[in-house]
Amino acid sequence: MKIRTIQEKIGNVKDEIIIAGVFEETKVLSGAASTIDKLTRGMLKEVLDYGDFSGKLYKTLMLYVKKGLQTKRVLLVGLGKEQEFNLDKLRGAASSAACCIRDFGLKSFVVPFSFVQTENIISRDKAAAFVEGILLGLYKFDDFKSNQRGSRQNRINSATILVNSMDELKKTRIEAGRAGSVARAVCTARDLVSRPGNSATPSFLAETARSMAKASGLIFKVLDEKGIKKLGMGAFSGVAQGSNEPARFIVLEHKPARKKVPSVVLIGKAITFDSGGISLKPAGKMEEMKTDMAGGAAVLGTLQAVAELNLPVHVIGIVPATENLPSGRALKPGDIVKSMSGKTIEVISTDAEGRLILCDALTYAARYKPSAVIDLATLTGACIIALGNDVTAVMGNDEKLIGKIRKAADTTGERVWQLPLWQEYGELIKSDIADIKNAGGRPAGTITAGYFLKEFAGDIPWAHLDIAGTAWTDRNKPYVPKGASGVGVRLLVEMLEKW
Prior knowledge:
CATH class of the largest domain: Alpha Beta
CATH superfamily of the largest domain: Zn peptidases
CATH architecture of the largest domain: 3-Layer(aba) Sandwich
Shape: elongated
Largest sheet: 9 strands, mixed
Distance between the termini: 31 Å
Number of domains: 2
Number of helices: 16
Helix content: 25-40%
Mean pLDDT: 96
Radius of gyration: 24 Å
Oligomer: single chain
CATH topology of the largest domain: Aminopeptidase
């Protein structure tokens, strides 16, 4: 889909449809809605006076224009109550409009920069919110549909952002371009998570990273099973040994031209299918366990955006990728593995495998002497019990780093909530026969998983994001259609931009 920005008056632009936002229970139209109402001699005010449209959040109403505009139609979009309106609701409103237009079978539309006029949103953030809302809301995964031609026919070809001045034009094009890169990266992550386990194998992820590196100038490195074992990654290779699919340890690196820039390592858990291993999961919804590589997908998507935007930060993405399956060779409860750090781990549950592959990745990350390490993982079902499906848990050993993440979360709408890592939680994962055990039972399951990782993070500023609840949605949300969310990409890019 092509998004362009032009300088033109609302009454002069020609297109299939133009959109305008209306606040709930408003008595005075503002922004684009006010301009359109004047040009059409009170058409919008008349609709509001009749009570046909109240401006409730994300509700839409199609109107047909007879005079005053070059566009054939106007789409009113509800913005909800003005005092509650924010950047994330603007993304949702843009998404609602775009999806409505797509469902009508239209191929293009115009969104005026004055679509919404409120003091709640900084002007420079508007264009980015428009683009993110439109591209993310229109996302569809249909790679495995046999009738892809029919699916493509019901797609929007272009959207035009309308601005008033040359100064506004330049700024909007920059922000729209940046947002387009980030949205495409989110869609890359969504595509990877949506693919079934027999397609998105560890080798497939490695080849995807290789292609990404070639296209965008990233440095690519991959370790096969032999290389993984040579480095002493006994925890990672222990998880991988139950599968016939070869494991891959993927590294992507963005090195900016400027020297003496901070280094940040991003680690993403990539269990491309998680059966639970010998500690087998229940059959119900096991098909969704293809999503257990969402952390790795987010890291790959983030590196794609970082490279496109050429951010002045040295970013290293590490993705340990394997399946977790039961077999005659698989890890058993009670087994002990030796991690790359030298610490031994008693395996209490083979379904607590994510922390086993991440602990070796954390040890590997130290060789870059980074300013910070952040890992993302669909790590614990307990996180969903604690926080539901709309909030990511964050833990770590550095409050300044967690503060950066929380600030980025406020901007992007990818909400996080901090959980504690007090010393008492460490008592739950003490082992009688090894240095540590990989599960501490039901109490504080998300926190003990985070505490396990903390033991391998060392003194490097580190944060852990448990995206178990936010990586996948069973219902349509504003600008997040049902399925893979691509969570983490926008959050990390925002944080790295402001680093």
